[in-house]
Structure formats: C-alpha cells, structure tokens
Amino acid sequence: MNHETLLEFVLYDLQLVALTIFVLLYAIKIRQLLMLPLPLEGGAADQETSTGRAVAVSYASILSPLAMESTRRHWRRWAVFAAYHIGILVAITATFTIPFTPGLMTQSVRRVAATAIALGLVAGFVKIYWRLTLPELRSISQPDDFFGLTILQVWFAIAIPAVLLNHPGWLVVYFVMTALLLVYVPVSKISHYIYWFFSRYLFGRRYGRRGVL
Amino acid sequence: MSEIVKRAQEELDKRYNRLVALNASSLCTRCGLCADSCHFYLANGDPEVAPAAKTERVRSVYRRQHDWLSRLFPNFTGARELTEDELDAWVDIAFRYCTMCERCTVNCPMGVDTPVVMGAARGTLTAIGKAPEILVQLADAEIARAESIDIFKDMLKEQIGFLEEELREETGDPEASIPMEKEGSEILYVALSGAHTILPAAKIFHRAGVDWTLSFFEASNYAVFLGDMKRAKAIAQRIIDEATRLQVSEVVITECGHAVFSYRWSTPVWFGELPFRIRSLIEVIHDYVRDGRIQLDQTANPDPITFHDSCNLSRKSGLAEQPRAVLESAAADFREMTPNREKAFCCGAGSGLVAVEEWRDTRLAAGRPKAEQIRNTGARVVVTSCDNCRHQLGDLGEHYGLEIEVKNLAEVTARALC
Amino acid sequence: MSVSESVEESEGLVSDLVLDLKGLVCPVPVVKVANAIKGLEVGGVIEASATDPGVLADIPAWCHATGHELLRIGRNGREFAFWVKRAK
C-alpha cells in the first residue's frame, strides 16, 4: 500500500468503520437506558410555568458560567473546561472537513483551528494538574480519568501539526488515532456528553413543572 | 457473598430505573465543582463528603454491574464489589452526610441528580435493616396511628380540646373551634403533632371564615426519608382516604417541607387523579392575604425578620415567592439572606437527619453556612416553613450564639392578624 | 386509653429515668424517649414531662409501633406527663 492509498484508506474507510462502531455502541447504550422504566413525575405547579422554557434554560446553563454559583466561583475551571471542549470540537470537526470539504481548509482556517486545538492541549495539562493536586478532585479520580485525559492530550498533540501542515504522515497518525478514539469513547467515561443531553432535559422538565425555573 | 450483601444487591437492582441508571452512569465527569455547594463539605473540608465522592461510592457499585468497561476492568474505572463494610459506609454517606437538598444538582454543569442515587442507597439500606432505627420507628408510628385509629382517636380529640381552649382565649371568640371529622368541609388541614402547627393555622382559618376540618393524621412521612416508597404510600394513603371520606374540596398540608414535597409531587403518581386538590398552607395564606380575606398589621412583627428557604419547598417545589409576599405584609423589617430561593443553603439537617440524636454534632457543624447567613442579616426572627428546618435553626441559634427566635409563617401571620 | 386528669394519679409508679421534654415539639420528644430507652434494662421505666400536646398522639403511637409499654399518660394544667416501660 503506497502513501496515497494509505491516506485515502484512513481518511475514508477507516473513519467510516470507526464511526459505524461508534454509532452502534451508542445506539446499544442508549437503547439499554431507554428500556429501563422512567419513574413518573406527577403534579404541576399552580403558577403558570413553561416546561419548554425551563428545558431551554437548563441546556443554556452550559454557556452561562455566571448563572451557577459553582461556575461563577470557579470561573477559571469553567474557562479551562470551555477551552478544552472547544479544542475537542474543532479537532473532531477537522476530521470531517479535511476529507469531505478540503476547500474550506484554507491556510488561515488551518491556523485558527490549530490554535484552538493548542489551547485545548494547554487546558488539558491544567486539568491533569488540578486532578493531581486539588483534594476534592484527587479523591474521586480513577485511572480511567487520567487515561482519558492522556489519550486526548496525545490526540491534540497530533492534531495540531496534522491540521496546520496538512502533511500526509501527520494526517495518517491523526486519523488512525481518531478512529481508535471513536471506538473507545462510547465505552468510556468520556461518553458523559451523550448523557448530558438526557440529564439537562430531565432537569429542565422537572424544575419547569414544579415552577422553580 | 454474604446473605445480607446478596439481598442488598437485589434491592439495588430493583431500584435500577432509568433515572438511577442515568445518574449512576458516566454522566458525572468527576469534575469536583459540586464540592463547595455542599454544606457538609464546607463544614469540614473533607473531600470524602463532597457530593461527587459520596455518589461515587454508590455509583461505583452500580458500575461494576452495568458498565461494560467496568465489568472487564473494574480497577481501571474504580468499580467496586458490594461488601458489608461498604454498606455500613453507605449509612454515613446516604443518611448522615447527605440531606438530599439538591443544592449540588443545581450547581452541577451536568445536572447530576444526587438525591436519585442517594435515594436508591437509602431504600436499599432500609430494606436490609441498616437504616437509622429512629427513622424506622417514626415511620412505623405513623402507620400505627392509622392501623389503630380507634385507640388514638380519643387521645387526639383530648389533645385538640386543649388547643381549642387556647384558640378561644386568644381569639376572644367562645365559638371558635378546631373541627374534626367534619364532612363536606372546604379544607382538610393536615398539621403536625406540635401545637405550633395547629393553633396559628386555626386562627388564620377562623379569621378568614373558612370551613375547615383538622386531619387525624400528621403531615410528616418518615418513610420518604427512608427511601421506602411502599411505606411512604401507605402513610400518604391515610390522608387520601380521610379526605375522600370527608368529601373535602382541598387538602392543605402544613408547613413541613418533605410533606409538601411528597404530597404535591408523589401522590399524583401513587393515587392518580384525586377529587380534591392538594396545596401547602403557605399558598393558602398567600392567597388569603392577596385576596384580602385576612388583613395584616406589619407593626405586630417589628423585629428584623429573615426567611430560610426549605430545600423541599423552594428548590424542589417552587414555593419561594409566596412566603416572601406574606412576610412583606406581615413584618415591618424583612431582610433576605444571600443566596436565597432555589440557590439557598440547606439548614444542614434535612431528610431526617434532625431526628437522629447520635448525629447531632454532624448537623450542627453542617449548619455553619446557614448560621453565617443568618448572622449576616442581623435578623432577630428567622421564619421558615419547614418543621425540620425549624428544629435545626433553633439548635443553630443556640450553638452559634445567634440570639434568634425561629417561627413558622403561620405564627408570624397569626400574630399580625388585624 | 384516655388522658388522666392529673399526673398525681400516677403516683406509685417507680421510674428509672426522668426526662424533661418541656418546650420541645414533635418529633423531638419521641426522639429523646427513643434514645433514652436504649440505655435502660428491659423493664426499666422512663418518666417524662412535656408541654406540647402532640405527645398525646405521638408517644402512644410510637409505643404501639415499637412494642414498649405506655404505663400512663396524664395532664396537669398545661403540662403532660407519661411513663414508658422498656419491653424488649
């Protein structure tokens, strides 16, 4: 297999296989969750409330660090969280734009993307440092927390030159690493973001119905 | 695996519904942001009592059973086998160091519902006989009242007779009464055993000219604290049956946080649609003031007054504005604590903790953030609409030298009646 | 069961422990009695006085639920007194 064929394979076939496994694993996990009975909630507040609005407020809380005492007080942690997740979002988006909309990946777009991923990498180091040093974080940290952080650091570190330079060698490593992550993420605690959608919905619905939000 | 651990595992599995599964999943990112939203953590700085650490103890056991990776590599994910030592540790985690106040939930970016996980732990511990004995006894006493109502009826009527004498003295109306078993009344009022939950409400009903009757039963439901929903339903059944028998239009629950919470949100699930509505006394007083059915004189309560939000009422039931509106009319100098409403601190003794004498020191320490809040207002009177909070705040006043008097909303309102 | 008109009627009962529950409201009197009774031998008697009439309902119900024996409960003006014997 020559370099070009290899690159084509990892950019398209490998990603497709990995994405299929990713979707299948999530489908099974979500099905398992939805098969369980959901305890009913009864009653509704007397005052007029909008459950839909409360659900929207619940989802929007992720973007409003000032709304929650915890994120307001620990704004640095929220800022690091934001930088880290923006880095992830950009690195994932790049795995689609590079093979499918290469025209979009101009030099300036590559620079901006690489910078966002680099900030994610820095945020990752801060997260590891906090997990090792803050007592309330250290006491609840498990090996898979450090493993998850570490592999994402490696992924970020590979993504930066791959996105910036568009060099076939870096791209192969980047896409192979992405494929491995796609398979690992659904079975690991990194899958928290999927549950977030369910949790925030239920939170909004509950507090909306009771007239709290 | 010992017999008790096996039974505990079965009980945990029984409680593994969608909500428990969601909150026992990797939803919690173990970010630790919840730590200082918890009064127990603030009290002693022990990371083991931070909400994520407490729920993680229970979650790790569920993970061992249900999470793919944890079944293969438990050490890697920190998944645990259930043991009897672990169950003993859960008694502290679920009953002693968590008041199910949901303050961590509203401060969690992921929305992890800690009481859902703790409720599963509490229910499991109760089922295997490890729940605090006094909570079990109090729940059993509530059921005993219903099972042997004929034995207690006379005692209750005598008790109410004493209070009726006081009501007549205080209202100056020789006809004033505390009716019981009055069919077709507008309201069935469900109080607690304490006179402070009966007399002030009776005065308010008397002044508003309401057709009401007092329940034979108390509003509290200790089985809710035990996470024992079967017993909780049996306790609630007493009131539902009584209201149905008396054909009242409305059941009014006294100022008791967990009672209002469970009657408002759980009874519709347990009993379906009912021929009467269920409200809290707070809402009823609010409406009487708003509609001019009672007039209040602010000068009757001249001392600086602050309001403590019960978690069950404000954060969990959305009843934050009504008591404030009443206090604005009933008190001359109302001051807010900060933070308040759904963001308020727990008193430190909710969900039955106040009843466990052996853990008194724990709850007094956990009440420190609340004590500091009260001190900062300079208030001499703290009003709260939950009897559990009332006890705790009284104890905090003594313990932290706050020089406060603790009252419920009905007491302050009754005092201000024109 | 009914309330004795006067606590003096309970003369002759020997108590092993006396509790002052005056000023306390439900469920604290029950909690205090439940806690104290654990320190007595089976057959030991607690004598308690309280001011909240809630004890008239709570204490008999608690005894009924736990099996402890309520020997007597009485009223003297605005005070209530009761005697509970540890049964098990």
What does this structure look like?
The complex is a heterotrimer of chains A (213), B (418) and C (88). Chain A contains nine helices and no strands. Chain A is mainly alpha-helical. Chain A has a single domain, classed as Transmembrane di-heme cytochromes, Chain C (Fumarate Reductase Cytochrome B subunit), CATH 1.20.950. Chain A starts with a helix and ends with a helix. The model of chain A has no long low-confidence stretch (mean pLDDT 95). Chain B has three domains: 129 residues, Fumarate Reductase Iron-sulfur Protein, Chain B, domain 2; 141 residues, no CATH class; 120 residues, Rossmann fold (3-Layer(aba) Sandwich), CATH 3.40.50. Chain B has a four-stranded parallel beta sheet. In chain B, strands 6-5-7-8 form a four-stranded parallel beta sheet, with helices on both faces. Chain C has 88 residues and is α+β, with helices and mostly antiparallel strands. Chain C has a single domain, classed as TusA-like domain (Translation Initiation Factor IF3, 2-Layer Sandwich). Helix content of chain C is 25%, strand content 30%. Chain C has two helices and four strands, in the order βαβαββ. The mean pLDDT of chain C is 86. Classes of the chains: A mainly alpha (213), B alpha/beta (418), C alpha+beta (88). Chains in contact: A-B, B-C. Chains B and C meet through helix 10 and helix 11 of B and helix 1 and helix 2 of C.
- Per DSSP E runs of 2 or more residues, the count of β-strands of chain B stands at 8
Biggest interface reads:
A-B, 56 and 60 residues
Class from secondary-structure proportions of chain A: mainly alpha
Percent helix of chain A, as a range, is over 70%
Largest sheet of chain A: none
Instruction: Look at the structure and give the CATH class of chain A.
Output: Mainly Alpha
Q: How are the strands ordered across the major sheet of chain B? A: 2-1-3-4
Q: Low-confidence segments of chain A, ≥5 residues, pLDDT <50?
A: none
SSE topology string of chain A: HHHHHHHHH
First and last CA, distance of chain A = 59 Å
Oligomer: heterotrimer
Query: What is the straight-line distance between the termini of chain B?
Result: 67 Å
How many whole angstroms does the radius of gyration of chain B measure?
A: 22 Å
